[in-house]
Design goal:
Strand order of the largest sheet: 4-3-2-1-5-6-7
Structural class: alpha/beta
CATH architecture of one domain: 3-Layer(aba) Sandwich
Bound molecules: nicotinamide-adenine-dinucleotide, magnesium ion
Number of helices: 17
Largest sheet: 7 strands, parallel
Strand content: 5-15%
């Protein structure tokens, strides 16, 4: 296996740090060419000392200048850069083989799309980029011969459970190959058993404390509202080319079965493991080979039992809103995603209650009819329009 050069977008986040933990175990296979973070300069500097990348990127130019001085003082040749153009450049560097797309939210779209247009192997954690830009992103992947490997544990599980030879190309019509349904599992989040009245009162601290997974704050809130699963349904639609009618959600509180594929002959193939993101990260990094990930062996006796239940769309309307956006098509998923990002931030800031999140998103979907989505500009315009509508909703809610 020749040495692979990596760009890691979002290197200081939960996925970024887990990626570096897997990379650290295999210095003979992976070299880090570019590390990209937003604000956490101290952690980025520590990562540079360990992995000695050619480039390190921060969001702000002054922060990057300070980092450059620190790097030089430490005798490192790493070049510090800043801004979105630098992220796009890192995603498309000629010497880079694979790009870990692990920026959170719409901010990850431009660099992830740049990786697709440069024909890279993309390890996709940043589901929001695919949700908001589905047709534009998938066309870029196709036209430039990029490869998409899912990091999201559910999609990685499905990828592992698909017929031989799928290799991540959604134009391989899966129903024609005997696939009847994709079953996405969901833990149900920290409020799975809460009553509607109790949901009104939950706090950001309770929402970010996920029972099974340790993740960034935004995706933790998404897991609590179940919007995370909604985004994942849309993600599965684009990654695997499956219609919404063939994608089902199953609540599975133990998070041991990471998702399942049902075939016409009645077979159901699943991938199991401990809830540890290093498994899908290692799978995608080494695909089609297998490498150690530092993940503890699954102890089925300790797991004891596996439970399943249907999702409750009344207590968790975000899941239904995502299905609605997927069937509306065009710009509707971009509207859903942008409204959700604004709503989650407002909830974390204490400016919106938990049940206000789906109310705000529904209002934005009502106000903004779906438009065709055929270019990056159209995606960015839909995103901006939905953010403006969401902020207007928040301002009216505060005034009322
Ligand atoms: P996180 O909040 O822990 O980390 C986010 C990373 O993005 C950080 O490195 C941050 O510096 C960077 N970032 C934030 N805003 C940025 C901006 N404007 N420009 C450039 N960089 C920016 O988030 P996370 O939990 O690691 O999640 C990252 C992505 O992976 C999300 O899309 C999430 O949905 C997806 N994901 C995460 C998990 C998980 O277990 N954490 C699982 C599945 C999918
Ligand atoms: Mg997931």
């Amino acid at each position: 296996m020749p040495l692979q050069n990596l760009t890691i977008l979002g290197c200081t986040g939960s996925i970024g740090v887990n990626t570096l933990d897997v990379v650290r175990r295999h210095p003979d296979r992976y070299r880090v060419t570019a590390l990209c973070a937003h604000r956490q300069a101290d952690l980025l500097f520590a990562q540079c000392l360990e992995f000695r990348p050619r480039f390190a990127v921060l969001g702000d130019a002054e922060d990057a200048a300070a980092l450059q001085a620190q790097l030089a003082a430490a005798g490192l040749p790493t070049e510090a850069l800043s801004g979105v153009e630098a992220l796009e450049r890192m995603a498309a560097l000629p010497e880079v083989d694979a790009v870990m797309a692990a920026i959170v939210g719409a901010a990850g779209l431009r660099p992830t799309l740049a990786a697709a247009r440069a024909g890279k192997k993309i390890l996709l954690a940043n589901k929001e980029a695919l949700v908001m830009a589905g047709p534009v992103f998938m066309r870029a992947v196709r036209e430039h011969g990029a490869a998409l490997l899912p990091i999201d544990s559910e999609h990685n599980a499905i990828f592992q459970s698909l017929p031989d030879g799928f290799h991540g190309d959604p134009s391989h019509a899966l129903p024609a190959r005997g696939v009847r349904r994709l079953l996405l599992t969901a833990s149900g989040g920290p409020f799975r058993a809460h009553s509607p009245a109790a949901l009104e009162k939950v706090t950001p601290e309770q929402a970010v404390a996920h029972p099974n997974w340790s993740m960034g704050r935004k995706i933790s809130v998404d897991s609590a509202t179940m919007m995370n699963k909604g985004l994942e349904v849309i993600e599965a639609h684009w990654l695997f080319g499956m219609d919404a009618e063939r994608i089902d959600v199953v609540i599975h509180p133990q998070s041991v079965i990471h998702s399942l594929v049902e075939y016409v002959d009645g077979s159901v193939i699943a991938q199991l493991g401990n809830p540890d993101m290093r498994t899908p990260i290692a799978h995608a990094l080494a695909y089609p080979e297998r490498i150690a990930a530092g993940v503890a062996a699954l102890d089925l006796f300790q797991v004891g039992r596996l439970d399943f239940e249907a999702p409750d769309l009344e207590r968790f309307p975000c899941l239904a809103l995502a299905f609605r956006a997927l069937s509306a098509g065009g710009s509707a998923p971009a509207t859903l995603n942008a409204a959700n990002e604004v709503a989650v931030q407002a909830f974390l800031d204490g400016a919106l209650g938990f049940t206000g999140i789906p109310a705000l998103i529904a209002a934005c979907l009502d106000a903004l009819p779906a438009k065709p989505l055929d270019s990056l500009d159209a995606v960015l315009a839909a995103d901006a329009e939905a953010r403006a509508a969401a902020r207007g909703y928040l301002a009216r809610a505060v005034a009322a």
